[in-house]
Every structure is written in structure tokens, then in C-alpha cells.
Amino acid sequence: MTGTRDARAGFAESEAAFHEAASAAVGHDDFGDPSYLEALRVLLCAYDEEARFNDYGREASRHKVVETLKKRLRAEQVWKASPGLRGGEIRRPIVICGLVRTGSTALHYLMGQDPGMQCLEYWLASKPQPRPPRGEWEANPDYQASRAEIDFMYEADPSLKAIHFLMADGPEECRHLLEQGFTDDGFEVNASVPSYSRWYASADMRPTYRRHRDLVATIGSTEPEKRWLLKYPVHMRYLADFLEVYPDACIVQTHRDPSRVLSSYCSLIAGFRAIFEDDIQRKTIAEQELELWAAGAERAIEVRGRHDPRQFFDLHFHEFMEDPVGSVKRIYAHFDQELSDEGEACLRGWQNEHPQHKHGKHDYAKQDIGLSRGEILERFAAYMDHFGMEPEQSKTGDVA
């Protein structure tokens, strides 16, 4: 890994060196809109003052900063060569968001099989560029690098496949695009950075989403007629800013009893954070995530109240589990999207070939996160009351 001239230097004092390393690797120094610097500086200070990095975590995080800056540079490089790629029209994208671990990933993968839609593939999210013809992907160095990255992760920890399944050519969340602004919850997942988390919770995400839109338009520029499918639970937390940038977005919000998902998510965070830090404090993680997602769900309710109800579709976990393809059909009907016979066949084929727990079951039921079920339900009471949700009486299974 490489990041600065002196890896012993603090993160904040290495800001210039991080930029220099990225520029040297890419070959130019235009990082675009400088608004990202505020987030970067808050993050670097938090890394210095709060993170409990082990040796690997410190070096990996330095490497991550440089790699993220390199992605900004490469995007600017693409836009400089083809200015028309920015600002492309994205009409009524279907966007999946909601609480974590509520079936959104399974829904995303299922909908992503429809050839009538276009989605954000992992390798293109990681290395944004106009989407080439499918037959050219295997020979593309960026595709090969993404596949190697996923393979390495699962070889290092095979249990991660059961927690969150990834494919280089499969649908991916928007996290890679948000990272380019250093405004993504991945930074607070991998390290203890409470000051960054406080800043991020109230950050103006409009610059990040404007860049997000330009990146999405760039990737889809070879198929501009196809409707977009996007997914990221975090969009629920910043729904006001998201809808300002995507005013005609069609929002699918997934729901489940929060007391059935928080343990799973905190287990996921603890597993990732243990790679980067020592002394993992599960209860602290749980308390932070409880407040973060409960407050985000309540803000989303307020935002939705200011918009046309027809712009939203609510999908509850049990409904999706009972009839996955039927759930997609209802979403499509609500948002005027056609599902062709070929598309339905692709969905049913994926469903048959990828049953629940195909890659193993994430066994989190006995993991103590330091919060009772009653505490979780109490904090989410307003959210559950608003959507008419009752606590689950028995576990239905853990689906991302």
C-alpha cells in the first residue's frame, strides 16, 4: 500500500501528501468541486483523534483515502475528455432505500435481473465509466480488478458472503459514488469516528448527490433510454437532499421490525471494524446505530409528508418473502414500469437459482449487542406506528 511519503505522519498533516500521491498515480491534479475537502478534513482529524486503528487498519485507511482521491481524479478525467457525459437525463429512477437488513439487497438483486432496467454494477460503481458492451467486460482491467477485490475479501473471511453477497457484474449499492465526496457511512462503519459521524449526520449532501447524478449519467450514457434502478439504505437518511437532486425519483422504502435487524447490522459492523481496529465495543456500536437509523427513519417520514404520496412505495419484509416476483410486479405497476415476459422469466430464474441462505446463514441470533428488544422497539415506536407495523412474533430469517 502507498499513501504518503511517511506512513508515520498523522492523517491530517498528510492531507497534501494524500493528494500528491493520487495525482502522481493518475497523472493530473484536477479534483473537481472542492466542497469534498470539508468532509475529508473532518474525517482525517477523527482518524487522528478517535480511531483505534491496529497497524493494518491505519495503513489500509491511508490507502483508502488515496484510492478515493484517485477515483475523483479519474472521474474528472473522463468528464474532461467527454464533457457531454455530465448532466445527462435520468428520468424517474426507481430507488430502493429504508432500514438496513430489511431485504433490500435481495430485492435489488432480483430487480437487477430485468433486462428492461439498468442498474449500477459493482465494477462500474467502483470505476465509473460509460458502460461497455457486456461481451467486453472480462477483458477490461477495471472489471478484472473488481472481481479480484471481491475474491480476496471472501477468501480472507468466507463468512462475509453469507452476510452480504457481492458480484463484480451484479447490482451494487451507491456507496462507491458517495465515497467520492468522503460522505458515506462506510467511513464510520470501519472505524470509531464519532466526531465525523456527528458532522455527517447533518451534512449538506447536495454536492455529493450532484456528483452521484453525474456519475450515474456517465455510466448509463451508452443506454440512455433505459430506466435506472438504484439502491442504498443510506438514501433514506438523506431523503430531502436526494429528492432535491432527483426530484422525480420513485422511492421504494423497505420495512421490517427494527428489533429483528439491528443485531444483524451491528454484528456486520463489528466484523468489519475488527479488521481495522482493536477493542471492538459492541454496545457502543449498537447505541450509535440505534439512534442514527431511528432518527433517519423519522426524518424520512417528515420528508415524505412534503411530497406526493404516489412517489413512494412501501414494501414490508414479510410481503417480499412471501412473493418476491409478485412484489416486483406491484412496484412496477405503481411506478409505470413494464415487465416483459423475458424480464419475468429472468426474475423467476434468479429466484429459483438463488434461494435464501444459498451462501450460508448469518447466525447472529445469540450475539449480545447490549440492548434489549424493548429498548429498540421503544426508540423506533414513532416509525413503527407511522407505518402500522407490529413486532414480529417469530424470526423469518436474516436477509440483507
Q: Output the CATH homologous superfamily of the largest domain.
A: P-loop containing nucleotide triphosphate hydrolases
| Unreliable stretches covering 5 or more consecutive residues | 1-5
Give the overall form.
Answer: globular
Spatial extent as radius of gyration: 20 Å
Number of helices: 19
Strand order of the largest sheet: 2-3-1-4-5
Give me the CATH architecture of the largest domain, please. Answer: 3-Layer(aba) Sandwich
Largest sheet: 5 strands, parallel
Tell me what portion of residues adopts beta-strand conformation. 5-15%
Helix fraction, binned, reads 40-55%
Q: What order do the helices and strands follow?
A: HHHEHEHHHHHHHEHEHHEHHHHH
Total tally of structural domains? 2
The count of β-strands is 5
CATH class of the largest domain: Alpha Beta
Description:
The chain is α/β, with parallel strands linked by helices and about 400 residues long. It has 2 domains: about 1-80, no CATH class; about 90-385, Rossmann fold (3-Layer(aba) Sandwich), CATH 3.40.50.300. It is about 50% helix and about 5% strand. The chain has helices at about 15-25, 35-50, 55-80, 105-110, 120-125, 140-155, 160-165, 175-180, 185-190, 195-200, 205-220, 240-245, 260-275, 280-305, 315-320, 325-335, 340-355, 375-380, 380-385, and strands at about 95-100, 115-120, 225-230, 250-255, 310-315. Strands 2-3-1-4-5 form a 5-stranded parallel sheet.
